């Protein structure tokens, strides 16, 4: 029995989401459908409300208008259907790798042998078995994010919400972790919303890519990619063309957003 | 510089410019400064360069301390002082941590109590001693209360500051994994606030020692404060300084003990 949702059966639907911070509209009328078992990448210029959108999806914030709907049932043994992986890892520095994972199990009454089993399993899948008793400060950025991913896996999520998970890492580490994510998905497909500003990541990991406009964020386009994740290689003409297309969409938005910031 | 342009082939070592501005622990430097100062005073008083009305001779102060130790009076004075400091600061610090955490966690408590704390903090607690004598009696009660109140306010301020400084992303993480409110407080907020609480403790205990002496100067038969007051009114500088020495050592020891506690509890910081 795997820790992943064997056949993740939870869909997410965003209906006309509008959100404001103190009079400033960050998101306007965003509607999206995230089908089960697919990775939806959300890209857009900085400040377009991508991260806000993710917080709304997972219920960490309440939208001002519109709603986020989940349909279907979470997989068996799922402790936390909507689970985040944060950009800055959000590991407790006073707990070891093992302690950080057991943190999210303790509240569900999973301790001792049962917790041990889960921890061993997720650490093996994120290649962290040798670092079980290390403290976060002893780990590199890439390792820390692996721990955060292992922690997310431990609760058997129905949907993973990844908030720029690779943005704090250097290029090589990012490449390695992308391969790991593809490997994890290939073993057991999961549903995910993956927010990033990095087009290469989006093209590599997304089954669909939603492009948000600059503030107030609106969905400009949703691009579907039918190349299987495992067959996506650097230099693939089709993917490169797609990335160029996305860059064109983003470019004007990014430039306009950049100019706007100067006026603030 | 001009050489470099005229003779581009001569090699020069790049001069090092990156030193300094980087405090490093130098062992023993503190003791050396202390000893040099003592030696200077000793030499000054012996040669008459410093009159013995100005400063006592360090060796005489040492002799007084030894005598105090041998006569058993040291313990007679120290024991009540230590127990007053311990009881008073345990009361003040634990109440302060409790209230500080509440202020950090609940907006209503914060809105209600922060102005009160701001009003209490700057009051010289010694000024309230007569009042405390009426409230808590002339005995130990008023002394406990004085030290407790004195350590209470700074502990509150440092504690709620520490709670405020806990990384909010960690709290959000806890919420996103569905941890209960209690779990978030116990496993995320309190450990995260611990460094700030402990460093606030240093200040609180130092204030506690100051107030201990003040309390003992008013109505105590035994205690370091009473001993110093006695010596002062007789202008017995040797005993006065002996008492001050004991207080200094007490301060250094408590600071060292808190350092030890920090090392044990905060091992997760580099």
| E-strand count of chain A | 9
Oligomer: heterodimer
- What is the CATH level 1 assignment of the largest domain in chain A? Alpha Beta
Could you say what the CATH topology of chain B is called? MetI-like fold
> What's the helix count of chain A?
7
Order of H and E elements of chain A:
EEEHEEHHHEHEHEEH
Number of self-contained structural domains of chain B: 1
* Interface with most residues: A-B, 23 and 21 residues
Low-confidence stretches of chain A: 1-6
- N- and C-termini, Cα separation of chain A: 53 Å
Structural class of chain B: mainly alpha
Helix content of chain B: over 70%
Largest sheet of chain A: 6 strands, mixed
Number of strands of chain B: 0
Helix and strand composition category of chain A: alpha/beta
Please indicate the percent range of residues of chain B in DSSP E strands (runs of 2 or more). under 5%
